[in-house]
Amino acid sequence: MSKHLIQFVRDYFGTNEFIPLQAPIFPGREKEYVMDTIESTFVSSVGAYVDRFEKDVASYTGSPRAIATVNGTAALHVALRLAGVKAGDLVITQPLTFVATCNAVAYCGAEPVFVDVDRDTLGLSPAAMEQWLVENAQLDAEGVCRTKLDGKAIRACVPMHTFGHPADLDGLCQVSRRWNIHLVEDAAESLGSFYKGQHTGTFGSLGTLSFNGNKIMTTGGGGMILAGEALADRAKHLTTTAKKPHTYEYIHDEVGYNYRMPNLNAALGCAQLEQLEQFIAAKRVLASSYCDFFHGSDLQFFTEPEHCRSNYWLNAVICENKVQRDALLKSTNDKGVMTRPIWALMNHLSMYQNCRRGNLANSEWLEARVVNLPSSVLLGSD
Ligand SMILES: Cc1ncc(COP(=O)(O)O)c(C=O)c1O
Known about the structure:
alpha/beta, seven-stranded mixed sheet
């Protein structure tokens, strides 16, 4: 299988050189817009491209507002603060995610609670979340969801749309509403992915995106907070050192953050966003080719969940077991075709190993089996 896969990937990308997992491309107006910021001298955190990028992302995602940040981790940190997450609180999330999801929780002084994912979405399972809450939580007299054990507030839940595939958002909206918990979507990987026609990251109180160099489109480094009007105003304030608008006075009314995206990066973002649908079309052609390639084999190619349009940011296969997974990783990487295992579960990392958790059978099963395959956009394939 590995030998055939390596040949398939080489033929698809038309090269005998090293093939990365996901490389950015800049075939549009990137240079023009970036040069424009240099010529204008507005390269830093104020400038026309930041405003334009925020408007363009809001319009593309259908979010009432979008606030640009220096990266996706910073976006999630601020989104959690705006959802009211404070020191000593708990935040439900999935163990199968990139570490930034949990780090943002930790930056608030809160602790993640790990709840299992569903195998058909790779995202937080509403049934597992409901079960953990029934066993461990109750609503207090003010309607705050608290643990039965020690009365800690469970302030938010953070599903993550793994590799661009939307989690079960109907289910998650219902469970979080029933338990009075803020839904904050980590949509870092799912720009361009829709659940029942609605963009991921727009279902809860807040959602966040990442434009890191490895994402479906990039600003070099960058992120975005998706929110309604009131929370977006607060997000803008908190990410710009909490400075009160004034022509010349420096008045800051709380401890804010220097998390604003520079204009230089936003310029790159505006140019990339113009091509996003084209990038997604190319990703979907590649995914469909992988799907045909793996048809009838003992490796299961992961396809978009029902009622969703996934951006197929990173393609993934599920191996039969860890031995097969390890053999696939070794043979492909030895031959210059980059593949990667899914992340180690967050509860296996030293700083999160003592966090509360439910039964994580699906996450553990996937951790031993999932491999990501080369997924770069190849224009002309769509
Ligand atoms: C699931 C997830 N959350 C958060 C982040 C953080 O984004 P950034 O690297 O822009 O800080 C990333 C990606 O890097 C991610 O994949």
